[in-house]
Design brief:
Length: 471
């Protein structure tokens, strides 16, 4: 799960983390032997060569801790095996550990000066970016290096992939997976029942009534993923009104949540909940159990999520489900943004701590992950594209969801956006109980607005938190 980005986000408005006191930064030392592609951190060092651009020491070990969410950890294990077998690295070995509590488990290691060499900083319990940015390697050298096939990595990637991991002009996190945020549904269920795919929030009341007539719900949710609906609301408002909504939210404006477009969408969602179109009980239901009620039992028509959802639920999806996705919905037909405008971004942020024992090894594992072989393995096995171009065939490896992702990305072109503030300032954990209460029908629009804005104001008014202007 990407309770990260919902999401967020893999991804995450929904990749928010518990913001804790800032860790003590330290100076980074330039390695005397490092060429332009070499490691700039401390730790073990080897000779820099064309086949070893970061100077990984012979017989050294690479310690990687990977968020065990919607994509699992086996894709990094696969790259680790490729790296282990790379004779040009002379005995380097990779250890991959999984975690669902990145902040709780790894912040003590940062404090102790012994963080892992590579971290996938994802999930609801990821580390707030503002607490560790000064302790991370810049990763431009990874994109400047050649991949295992001999091509310059930056030439093999989709455009804009550096943006989500760039803070104050410094590229600190390499986001590996291209994540599409949308509404997901079963095309076969829609066809069998004559349901119409919605094109705006104005269509949802009628669709909810049609679902109820068939003994189904419009939406459902699970307790750990309640903020998937926050992602849906925010992204929909940005699709409707563009930067007029996005920038106040990103930059902690004291009236951000009072924007008329956000208020209109929250009001429609409130009305849908009050009409009984949201399946009750989500606040007491584990998120994958709730998702299986959608994908296996077909109890609800729509589910908001990032594109990790198919892989996350592939063992709990009805055989004839035909999962498809559409971009999150504008408020109405008067959106100010271009047609096809949507949230799509590189997700699963990988970081290399400068005080790791083997930061060169962490970068080399990233280089291996960005090879065509590793990226194609991921796309085929996880049914989602990485940031490496040309690894998904037209048939989407037989996945209707992956085919629909490609169509959405093609339709959007360069008209895509991202949201950083929740992840950046670690607000997701505090937002979860608010959204669980709202989705359960226990909070008005005015009340949720007040509480969400209070969290924004708390961050904005905390002088100990470094603020980063987002444009």
């Amino acid at each position: 799960m990407e309770i990260e980005n919902t999401s967020i986000s893999r991804r995450n408005l929904l990749r928010g983390a518990i913001a804790t006191a800032a860790l003590v930064p330290f100076g980074m030392t330039l390695a005397s032997c490092a060429a332009p592609g070499g490691s700039t951190g401390g730790g073990e060092k080897g000779e820099v060569t064309a086949d070893n651009p970061f100077g990984v020491a012979a017989n050294s070990k690479v310690d990687a801790v990977i968020f065990d969410g919607g994509y699992g950890v086996d894709y990094v294990e696969n790259s680790g095996k490729i790296m282990d077998a790379n004779k040009k690295l002379d005995g380097v070995s990779v250890k991959v550990s999984s975690s669902t509590k990145i902040a709780q488990e790894l912040q003590p290691r940062f404090v102790g000066g012994n963080p892992p060499d590579l971290i996938d900083n994802s999930g609801a319990n990821s580390i707030g970016w503002n607490t560790i940015l000064d302790q991370l390697e810049e990763l431009d050298s990874v994109l400047d290096a050649n991949n295992l096939e001999g091509e310059k990595i930056s030439d093999t990637l989709y455009g804009g992939v550096k943006d989500p991991g760039t803070f104050d002009g410094k590229f600190k996190a390499l986001n590996y997976v291209m994540t599409v945020y949308g509404l997901w549904y079963s095309s076969s269920l829609f066809e069998e029942n004559g349901f119409k795919v919605p094109t705006s929030w104005q269509d949802l009341p009628d669709l909810g009534a049609a679902a109820k007539a068939k003994g189904k719900y419009l939406f459902l949710w699970g307790k750990e993923a309640a903020t998937y609906y926050q992602t849906l609301v925010i992204d929909s408002a940005v699709i409707q009104s563009g930067d007029d909504v996005r920038l106040p939210l990103e930059n902690l404006d004291p009236k951000a949540w009072s924007h008329p477009t956000l208020q209109s969408i929250l009001t429609i969602l409130y009305d849908l909940i009050q009409a009984g179109y949201m399946k009750p009980g989500g606040a007491g239901t584990q998120f994958t159990q709730a998702q299986s009620q959608w994908s296996l039992d077909e109890a609800a028509l729509l589910y908001p999520s990032g594109s990790w959802i198919e892989n996350e639920m592939k063992k709990q999806t009805a055989p004839d489900f035909k999962m498809m996705g559409i971009p999150e919905l504008p408020l109405d037909g008067n959106q100010t943004t271009p047609a096809g405008f949507m949230r799509a971004e590189a997700g699963e942020p990988f970081i290399v701590p400068s005080k790791a024992k083997n930061p060169a090894g962490g970068k080399e594992l990233l280089r291996t992950m960005l090879s065509k072989e590793s990226a194609t393995w991921f796309a085929k096995n996880k049914l989602a594209p990485t940031i490496v171009k040309g690894t998904v065939p037209e048939d989407g490896f037989g996945s209707t969801a992956l085919q629909s992702q490609s169509k959405m990305l093609d339709a959007a072109g360069d008209n895509v956006f991202t949201i950083k503030s929740t992840n950046l300032y670690g607000m997701n954990s505090d937002q979860l109980p608010i959204w669980n209460t709202f989705l359960a029908g226990g909070m008005t629009v005015a009340e949720i607005t007040k509480q969400l804005q209070a969290l924004v104001d708390k961050v904005a008014n905390d002088s100990s938190i470094t603020k980063i202007e987002i444009k």
